[in-house]
Amino acid sequence: MDETGNELMRIQTAGLETAFDVRCFVIPPDNLTNCDNMALEVVSLTEIELAKIPRSDIYLCGESFGCCLALKVLERYPNYFTKIILINSASSFNRVPWLKFG
């Protein structure tokens, strides 16, 4: 997600932190990194966190464009994550029912 949602992300994940060790990947608005390199960056940051605190289960969650990025990460590293959660997926935009109303 871009940095405009930093505060919103904290609000949304506050309840999750009782059961999960939450980490967020923030994309600055001026970041022009391509999707493949962003996916590598997500995995690299995940490996750094795992070196600090080993976990057996890792849930990968993406929201909006983050869903596309999460799918790219999962495509390259299918055995890395236990579950994937896609919220408001930008990849399903063509299936939004209200689009046919003009």
Automatic annotation (TrEMBL):
It comes from the Bacteria. This is Serine aminopeptidase S33 domain-containing protein. InterPro entries: AB_hydrolase_fold. Coiled coil: none annotated. The lineage of its organism: Bacteria, Bacillati, Cyanobacteriota, Cyanophyceae, Nostocales. GO terms for cellular component: membrane. It comes from Dulcicalothrix desertica PCC 7102. SUPFAM superfamilies: alpha/beta-Hydrolases.
